[in-house]
Design brief:
about 525 residues, alpha/beta, TIM Barrel, 6-stranded mixed sheet, 5-stranded parallel sheet
């Protein structure tokens, strides 16, 4: 079989931040000459990436798939694009029974589609169709719409309809469902132990609805599901052909999750095994030429039937023919930003403590992922703003297991103030957690609790006896951290650490707008 056909089965990595390099360009040009199927873009400046993609498309004999993980809009990957709220925030903001909300959702997804088309992305790797069923899920969490399969199905289908109508190739991920894991498949192989019946009723349902609504592609996750097979799903004929193709009747493109992920480390000839299982496209292999050689060797020893590859190529060419219908139009980026801001504002969810608003004076303590901390934003509204680690510990704390921070309480300490704990968490590949560090969690819990009657070596300097006037915990990221702080007087979920989310929460605290969001997942606050 001609090598250029085998290269068509692969979507390779494209680093947008490197496209200005002549040597890097030459590497990419060689792959296009070999017949590469497409690229998945990470990073880069809008104008540079757009120009480079246009050049690659003009060089390629067949249209290139240009994929990207733009779950939060093009701005999630490309500088100059609009960053939208995460899927869980969208679900918190949009009420399915309100026509104006549904219209807003369509407008927002359409704005994402138009920006994708503008930069040259034709295969947005969205929506995430995982049903998040584990509070400690380290890699899905707020990337999911909900823990309810019906809600995930509804929102996922809404995304798919808009993307497909714009000519783009939508992608549902991560089949058969990554929502019930406590392990990030970037790091190691997750095992999903539920029964076949539960799997079909919960995790697979959104994919069934996606197929009914015309999704162009489905990404198979690196997941071990014993109820389906003893092989990881991405390498499993039972999952790919027997379940997804035959039982569910999916005739579109089947794509692997990225092949550089550690979940499949140690598996020999992984590219060939994925193709043998019935996958059409290999995403992000560690080495493209090695992947092609693996497939060639498997064909030579009759491990892979050439008819299987011809069928995959047929589906690939059919999908690429659809791309000719994409039309570039002018994009109103200011409108996109307004839509993003509106949905962010609508997503802020008051979980507990409605009667305590407005908050006009407070001591703000920033905790969690400090890359999101914007002290100047908070200082514009509240007099005292510190981070949980920004001042030295008292000498007597050094040996304390609590290791509580020295915080500046202002006159009278913290006990006569409202304390706002703004906690920032994030979901990102290879991180291994979507929550807050245990040490910081314990510090915050102790600050919320009553201080002992008698002085103790772990008391905070400036913190008087008695409870703080009011305590407010705001989760900028995973809402699942809120039950750790259920003794706080007020709990707020914001789903994202972006400046726009912080600004929206401040507006809610001051009652400049209402906390309109509805919690998309179940939280145990009892």
């Amino acid at each position: 079989m001609a090598q250029n056909k085998l290269y068509q089965l692969i979507i390779n990595r494209l680093d947008g931040d490197k496209v200005h390099s002549q040597s890097y360009q030459e590497q990419i040009f060689k792959l296009v000459q070999k017949g590469i199927g497409g690229f998945i873009i990470f990073g880069g400046e809008m104008d540079e990436v757009r120009a480079f993609i246009d050049k690659l498309q003009s060089m390629s004999e067949t249209p290139l798939f240009v994929a990207s993980d733009i779950e939060r809009g093009v701005g999630r990957q490309i500088k100059g694009g609009t960053r939208f709220p995460c899927q869980m925030a969208v679900s918190a903001a949009i009420r399915k029974d309100m026509p104006e909300d549904v219209s807003l959702l369509r407008d927002a997804v359409n704005a994402i589609a138009l920006e994708a088309i503008d930069v040259g992305i034709n295969m947005p790797l969205i929506p995430v169709l995982d049903v998040n069923q584990r509070p400690d899920n380290p890699i899905i969490c707020t990337r999911a719409f909900s823990d309810n399969p019906e809600d995930v199905s509804w929102f996922g289908s809404a995304y798919i309809k808009v993307l497909e109508s714009s000519g783009l190739l939508s992608c549902g991920k991560h089949f058969p469902g990554h929502g019930d894991t406590s392990i990030d498949s970037h790091i190691s192989l997750p095992t999903i132990t539920k029964s076949y019946k539960d799997l079909m009723a919960l995790d697979v349902m959104p994919f069934v609805k996606a197929i009914e609504n015309g999704v162009s592609s489905i990404m198979v996750g690196h997941l071990l599901v014993p109820a389906l097979d003893s092989m990881p799903a991405s390498l499993s004929k039972k999952v790919v052909r027997e379940l997804l193709r035959d039982k569910l009747g999916f005739n579109g493109l089947i794509i692997t999750d990225a092949l550089n992920m550690s979940a499949i480390n140690g598996i020999k000839n992984v590219s060939a095994k994925c193709i043998k299982a019935g996958v059409d496209i290999l995403l992000h292999p560690i080495n493209v030429d090695t992947a092609v050689k693996e497939i060639e060797d498997a064909i030579r020893i009759n491990e892979i039937d050439e008819g299987c590859i011809e069928s995959a190529l047929g589906r690939i060419l059919k999908a690429k023919a659809k791309l000719s219908g994409i039309k570039k139009t002018g994009v109103d980026y200011s409108r996109s930003r307004n839509l993003s801001t509106l949905i962010t504002d609508m997503s802020i969810t008051l979980v507990k403590g409605a009667g305590l608003l407005p908050i006009t004076d407070a001591h703000v303590i920033l905790a969690g992922a400090d890359k999101f901390h914007e002290p100047s934003l908070w200082k514009g509204h509240f007099r005292d703003v510190t981070t949980i680690h920004d001042t030295p510990l008292l000498p007597s704390f050094e040996k304390s297991p609590l290791n509580l921070p020295f915080t500046k309480g202002g006159q009278g300490g913290l006990s006569d103030k409202t304390i706002i704990f703004a906690i920032f968490t994030e979901v990102s590949a290879w991180r291994g957690s979507s929550g807050i560090e245990d040490e910081e969690k314990q510090r915050i819990i102790e600050l919320i609790k009553l201080v002992p009657e008698e002085p103790a070596p772990y008391l905070i300097r400036g913190l008087n006896r008695g409870k703080a006037k009011r305590s407010i915990v705001i989760s900028f990221g995973s809402p699942y951290i809120l039950p750790h702080f259920k003794d706080a007087d007020m709990l707020i979920a914001a789903y994202d650490g972006a400046v726009e989310s912080q600004r929206a929460v401040i507006k809610c605290l001051k009652v400049e707008m209402g906390c309109r969001g509805e919690m998309p997942v179940k939280l145990n606050l009892t």
